[in-house]
Amino acid sequence: MYLQSVKKEEKLVNTIMFTYILGIAISGWSFVMIFLNGGIRECIFPVSGVCAILTKVFEKKLGSAAKYIYACIPPVIGAITCAVCNTNDSASYVCITHYYFVATLLLVPYYDLKLIRVSTIVTIVVNAGTMIVFPTGFLKLHNLIGWIFTGFIYLVLFAVCTFISHHTNVLFGVIEQKAMETKSYENQIEVMKESEYKVHALRHDMKHHLQGIYVMTQNEESQKVLRYLERMQKSLVNPGEYVTTGNQKMDAILNYILAKAEQMNINVEHKVKVSKKIPIEAYELNIILGNLLENAIEAADESLEKYLYLHIVENKGMLIIHIKNSYSGKILTFGERFLSTKSGTKHGYGIMNVKKIVESHKGIMNVTYDEDEFQVEVTLYL
Fold first, then answer.
1. How far apart are CA 364 and CA 330, in angstroms?
2. Whether the Cβ atoms of residue 365 and residue 350 lie closer than 8 Å to each other
């Protein structure tokens, strides 16, 4: 399941990064030219501003790659600036390391651990490599011990940024999970109200129904009786009640998500057979079913066939959940995570959260896929 609350802020943080890079490029270059008698070589630093402008112009086409470009502009252009602009007769860009530190801090609001790692690796590798090839400019700023200490402080900054991003991701995940849980229970309350209303309506007219059936029976009109009973049965059907296992926490989340799938015109086939009391917390059940089914219906919605199959069964102390869905046939992987091609976002981010819960129950989770079908099977030992 996507961390939607975070992703809405990505465009805003892109704008902040753009403003910061462009602002520093203009102000830093102007300061050097005016107060430090800069020359033509100092014109390299404003290239960072040009790169930021080009990234901003093509930001929509670049998608999530834009934030990686913004993150890499300061260390790459900064390293070139250190090598070229800092010479024996020019102090020029003495605050370049401060520029790196602030740029890294500004990545935190993306709450993307991979982005912070990539930025840190690029900063260290590019600057260390450039320093080895062109040591004069770097040693003009700091001696070797000074650069080692700066590198140590930068690694501490990286650890702090990673810590903040990770725990914020966890917090947002909990908030969104609780929001889904609340919506599912609200939906279940509405479903129960509708079912109760239908039962009361049928009970209110029961004596009239029985009288009509009695007359038809007396006249030996069996086909009419069957059609009449069929209509009575249909009047009790609640279109929002897809699952009625008697397990309230299971029914709530499934009815909510299956209703959402129907609204998206996804063909749903489901079979659920569980007891009224399952020894698993509602919070954990919501994470498992919420994440897997949200991912499934989102992927199915992007596909041509648009179908979802759900099978949940409780058997011999095990809860087995089998989900398969159509998808566009385009999957990228990063480690154990599944990435979607839609706006570059992480389609299977929630699978990692599911896996943690499965492992805590000493269960098994298998993910398989082919050209047009994605499947997840979870086995929990209760």
1. 25
2. no
**Is residue 337 a contact partner of residue 348, using CB atoms and an 8 Å limit?**
yes
Between 311 and 340, residue with greater pLDDT: 311
Q: How far apart are CA 71 and CA 68, in angstroms?
A: 5
Distances (CA, A) of 234 to 3, 37, 98, 240, 259: 40, 87, 71, 13, 19
Q: Classify 268 as helix, strand or coil.
A: strand
pLDDT digits (tens, 9 = 90+) for 75-113: 999 999 888 876 555 556 678 889 999 999 999 999 889
User: What is the DSSP code string of 307-372?
Assistant: EEEEEEEEETTEEEEEEEEE--S--EEETTEEE-SSTT--TTHHHHHHHHHHHHTT-EEEEEE-SS
- Single out the residue of 168, 380, 147 nearest to residue 274, CA to CA: 380
Q: Quick one: 222 exposed, middle or buried, by C-beta within 10 A (0-12, 13-18, 19+)?
A: exposed
| 375/273 Cα distance (integer angstroms) | 20
245 C-beta neighbours (distance < 10 Å), count: 17
Between CA 103 and CA 113 the distance in angstroms is 15
Q: What is the dihedral of CA 98, 116, 52, 85, to 10 degrees?
A: 40
Rounded mean pLDDT of 160-181? 81
Q: Which residue type does 371 have?
A: E
Cα 80 to chain centroid, rounded: 36
CA angle 379, 381, 382 (to 5 degrees): 125
In the prediction, which pLDDT does 331 show?
63
DSSP E strands, 226-301? 267-273
